[in-house]
Amino acid sequence: MPSKVNASKPSARERLLAAADELFYSEGVQTVGIDRIVQKAGVAKASLYNLFGSKEVLVQAYLDARHAETRKQVERALTRFRTPRERLLGVFDAQGQLFTEPDFNGCAHMTASAEAQHGSPVECAADRYRLWVRSLFTDLAREAGVADADDLARQLHLLYDGAGVSARMDRDPSAATTARAAAAAMFDAAVKDEKTVDAR
Questions:
Q1: What does pTM read for this prediction?
Q2: Helix, strand or coil for residue 64?
Q3: DSSP per residue, 90-144
Q4: Distance, CA of 65 to CA of 72 (rounded, Å)
Q5: What are 99-109's pLDDT values in tens digits?
Q6: Which string of DSSP letters, residue by residue, matches 151-169?
Q7: Structural contact between residues 89 and 143, judged by C-beta atoms closer than 8 angstroms
Q8: Which of 67, 118, 125, 131 has the most C-beta neighbours closer than 10 Å?
Q9: Distance CA 192, CA 200 (A)
């Protein structure tokens, strides 16, 4: 009886991205060379260049995949919350879940962009991720009725970034809880200020 082809076997692209994700995230983009990626993935070096063209484009694909996964995790977490205020603060709950993962090693986009050339595909991938975070906060603040949603979103984004740095550098997963409390105070103050202005 002929053996069936295993349809679930990862493609060369998937194996390369999985190897890149593991090695780049744990050791850094500049530290890990192409040879280690292809060895870990079990593919020929030519396959990497045929699929991605360069290490830089592979890094970009790795960051885009991380972005997609983070977005999926945050969106899934936000389905637990009902009110706009809860959803906005829920972003920090979702962030806290990331901090408790055993392999948490900080923000991949921040780390990679620190080593990237200005205008490079790597910087562009980091910019897309940051735009998504800022837009998420802006949209949630707007849904919650905050008049200056852009200003509050900028403040919340700074908290989000700071929590990520603290969780990594201080090895403190509770940083997201602290950031959430600060975000709640900022949100409540913004809403209170608007009510005060409206009452005049």
A1: 0.89
A2: helix
A3: HHHHHHHHHHTSTT--S-HHHHHHHTSPTT-HHHHHHHHHHHHHHHHHHHHHHHT
A4: 11
A5: 999 999 999 99
A6: HHHHHHHHHHHHHHHHHHH
A7: no
A8: 125
A9: 13
Cα–Cα distance list, 45 to 2, 16, 18, 65 (Å): 31, 10, 15, 21
Burial of 180 (0-12, 13-18, 19+ CB in 10 A): buried
Nearest to 151 by CA among 161, 141, 163: 141
CA distance 151 to 112: 27
- Token duo for residue 105: 């090693």
147: DSSP letter: T
Confidence of residue 54 (pLDDT cuts 50, 70, 90): very high
Give the pLDDT confidence of 151-181 residue by residue, as tens digits.
999 999 999 999 999 999 999 999 999 999 9
Average pLDDT, the chain: 92
Answer whether residue 196 shows pLDDT above 80: no
Residue position matching structure tokens 């809880």: 177
Contact 137, 91 (CB under 8 A): yes
Q: 111: which residues sit within 8 A by CB, 6+ positions away?
A: 28, 29, 105
Q: What is the pLDDT of residue 59?
A: 97
